[in-house]
Amino acid sequence: MEPEIKIPRTRNGKATFQLIIDTTIDLFYKQGYFNTTITDITQKAGIAAGTFYLYFPNKLSLYKYILMEFQHEIRQQIAIKVSAVEGRFEKEKAGIKTFIRYALQNPHAYNIIWESLYIDKQLFIDYYDGFAKRYERGLKQSIKDGEMHDVNTELVSYIFMGVSNFVGLKILLNLGNNNDDVDAIVDEVMDIIRTGIFK
């Protein structure tokens, strides 16, 4: 059983906890997980090492917490936007746009999430498997509602996650051309998905 993270209850405790999180996100983004030490985190945050250990038993537990926070934030933002539109097609479009905008506002999230593949492969697997399973629920409902063909929903969930991730990377890293208009890019992506590619 893994040692537990201690979530603070007091205002000062919550502020210190968040300071540790924000400092660590910045360091992980700039230096990577393996090149960042607990000493780096405490020195940059201006806290004692003992204060760190009040909340987190080790660096890995802190990383896992940050990873799950990113997942929660992304899901929450997508859920809000998706709930405001009708129909599976429009929901997918809204979901992809929301994910890409989140990535643009939080470029550090991409680095930290993908680094999990090298920190602990099971973390990476669990992260995307969790997304896929939740994704599938909506896809299965859309099949029941007659909005989609009777397709392999697990596979489709990974297809859409792949589209979101790599179209997001194209825009975030400014790969290729014409990356300024998120709406136009995602609209074109969804038109291609709707009409298909091959004759």
UniProtKB/TrEMBL annotation:
SUPFAM superfamilies, sorted: Homeodomain-like, Tetracyclin repressor-like, C-terminal domain
Residues covered by the HTH tetR-type domain: 14-74
A single GO molecular function term of this UniProt record: DNA binding
DNA-binding residue intervals: 37-56
InterPro entries assigned: DNA-bd_HTH_TetR-type_CS, Homeodomain-like_sf, HTH-type_Tx_Regulator, HTH_TetR, Tet_transcr_reg_TetR-rel_C_sf
UniProt KW keywords: DNA-binding
Pfam families per UniProt: TetR_N (PF00440)
DNA-binding in keyword set: yes
Name of the protein in its database record: TetR/AcrR family transcriptional regulator
